[in-house]
Amino acid sequence: MNTSFQNQKPGLFTTIAIMTLTSGVVNLFWGFIASATALGTIVGVVCLPLTILPTILGIFEIIYAAKLLSAQPEPVQPSQSIAVFEILTFFIGNIFSMVVGILALIFYNDTNVKEYFGRINGTVVITPVPAAPIPEPSAPVEQPELEILPAPVEAEIPEPVEEPAKPKRIRKIAGK
């Protein structure tokens, strides 16, 4: 058995597995109780397919948690779909599974968990390395400032309009 530090499961990874297993058991019981209650009424018989859904989710959660908790790591991807379905159990009144789903989605984004999933799946996980800061130059380089002038606008002067000259009238004096 290899007990090197690199092959140890991160704490959040184990937490995800235990929370998923517990949520699976809770969903199994929740589905059985909801189905038994629904069989008591005629309307409940019509709604029986909806009450079976937590049971089905519970089965998938238990299978997934068993893969995560196995002594020999199996290639398995982070199951965000199970986490989303756990969150959706809020609509049937299961608050515990909703909290587990939210925490699972948060824990899947941890770098140690991502790296461990990458190692057990045989894929390389590239973690972003912060870029080195660009050193400032010792003497600032002066750049000539270019002056941007507006383009000259030539005003158009309208040509004067000449009015036609009126002919001068001569007054005639009466009686002369």
In a few lines, what is going on in this structure?
This protein is mainly alpha-helical and 176 residues long.
Q: What shape does the CA trace take? A: elongated
- Compute the number of helices: 6
Q: What does the radius of gyration come to?
A: 41 Å
Q: How do the SSEs run, as a string of H and E?
A: HHHHHH
- Count of beta strands: 0
Low-confidence stretches: none
- Rounded to the nearest angstrom, the distance between the terminal CA atoms is 147 Å
Strand content: under 5%
User: Biggest sheet: strands, sense, closure?
Assistant: none
Query: Please, what is the average pLDDT?
Result: 81
Q: Which percent bin holds the helix content?
A: 40-55%
User: How would you classify the helix and strand content by structural class?
Assistant: mainly alpha
Descriptive account of the structure:
With 176 residues, this protein is mostly helical. It has a domain at 8-121. 51% of the residues lie in helices and 0% in strands. It is built from six helices and no strands. It is elongated. The mean pLDDT is 81.
Which descriptors apply to this entry?
176 residues; mainly alpha; 0% strand; elongated
Compile the SSE list and pairings.
Blueprint: H1 11-38, H2 42-46, H3 48-69, H4 80-88, H5 95-108, H6 111-121
